[in-house]
From TrEMBL:
Pfam families: DUF455
Origin superkingdom: Bacteria
Lineage: Bacteria, Pseudomonadati, Pseudomonadota, Betaproteobacteria, Neisseriales
Organism of this sequence: Neisseria animalis
Protein name: DUF455 family protein
Length: 274
C-alpha cells in the first residue's frame, strides 16, 4: 500500500522543539525512500499562521535586530545565530512545501522532504558552532521575514516556488561567499567547513525550486521569464542589489538569458522610480 506522508509531515512542521523537529524530519525522510506515496487521499492541509518554533528566539522586525560588531565574541555569535535561524526557517519552509501543496507529483513531495532533511543537517551543524562559542539558538532576537513569505505564498505552489527558492534562498548564494571570507579572516576554519556544506547544498535546493517553477509554468501554459518579472515587481522584491552570484545561480538552474533580462528590467524600474 502506498505510504501517506502527511501526518508525519504535519507533526514535524508543527513541532516547536528543534530536536524533535529534526528527529521527525529524519524519520520522514527514511519513510519515503523507495516507497510509493499516497498523495491523493489526504485531508486538506491545515491553515496555520506559524509553523512550529521554540518560544525563543524572540521575533522582532528586521530593522529592530540589534546590529553587533563582528570583532566581539558576542557579535560573532550573533552572526552565527542569524545563520542558525535561517536554517531553522528553511526546515519549516521545505516541510511546508511538501505538506501544503497537494495534487502535485510525488517527486515534488520527496524533493522537499529531501531538502528539509538537509536543512536539519545545516541547522544542527550551525547550532554546534554557536554552542562552541558559548551561545545557543534562541539567545539572540531574530526576524520572521522568511516564514512571512511562506504564509503569503501558501495558496499557490507556483508563487511559492517563484518567490521562496528563486528569490529568498537564491539570495543565500549571493551572500554566503562574503560571510565565508569574514569567517576565514577570523581563522574559524570549522565554521568555514559548515558554510561550504551549506553553500553546496543550497545550490541543489534552488535548483529544485527552479525545476518545479518551470514545471508549474509549463503545466499552466505560462511563460516563466515574463511571469517571474511580473511577480517580483508585484511583490516588491529584487534580485540585483549588491553582489549577485551569477555562476552559482547558473548552476542552480537560472539561465544567463533570464538573469540578464532581470538585471535590465530592475535597472529600468530604478530609473522609473527616479
Ligand atoms: Fe540550508
Amino acid at each position: 500500500m502506498a505510504y501517506s506522508p502527511y501526518s508525519l509531515l504535519e507533526r514535524a512542521l508543527l513541532s516547536g522543539n528543534p530536536d524533535e523537529k529534526g528527529a521527525l524530519t529524519d524519520e520522514l525522510f527514511a519513510a519515503v525512500q523507495d516507497t510509493a506515496l499516497d498523495t491523493a487521499s489526504a485531508a486538506p492541509a491545515l491553515d496555520f499562521r506559524m509553523a512550529g518554533r521554540p518560544c525563543k528566539p524572540e521575533l522582532v522586525a528586521p530593522s529592530q535586530v540589534t546590529p553587533r560588531k563582528m570583532n566581539t565574541v558576542e557579535g560573532y555569535a550573533a552572526m552565527l545565530h542569524a545563520i542558525c535561524h535561517i536554517e531553522f526557517n528553511a526546515i519549516n519552509l521545505a516541510l511546508d512545501a511538501a505538506y501544503r501543496f497537494r495534487k502535485l507529483p510525488e517527486a515534488f513531495v520527496k524533493d522537499w522532504i529531501g531538502v528539509a532533511k538537509e536543512e536539519v543537517y545545516h541547522f544542527r551543524l550551525m547550532r554546534e558552532r554557536l554552542r562552541h562559542f558559548g551561545f545557543d539558538y534562541g539567545d539572540f532576537e531574530a526576524h520572521g521575514h522568511l516564514w512571512d513569505m511562506a504564509y503569503k505564498t501558501a495558496f499557490d505552489p507556483l508563487l511559492r516556488m517563484a518567490l521562496v527558492p528563486r528569490v529568498l534562498e537564491a539570495r543565500g548564494l549571493d551572500v554566503t561567499p562574503a560571510i565565508r571570507a569574514k569567517v576565514a579572516q577570523r581563522g574559524d576554519t570549522e565554521t568555514c567547513g559548515v558554510l561550504d556544506i551549506i553553500y553546496r547544498d543550497e545550490v541543489g535546493h534552488v535548483r529544485i525550486g527552479n525545476h518545479w517553477y518551470q514545471y508549474l509554468c509549463r503545466q499552466r501554459g505560462l511563460e516563466p521569464v515574463v511571469l517571474f518579472r511580473r511577480l517580483i515587481a508585484r511583490y516588491d522584491m529584487f534580485i540585483f542589489r549588491g553582489y549577485v552570484n551569477i555562476e552559482a545561480r547558473e548552476r542552480a538552474g537560472f539561465s544567463r538569458f533570464e538573469l540578464e533580462m532581470l538585471e535590465d528590467f530592475e535597472k529600468s524600474l530604478k530609473t522609473m522610480a527616479g
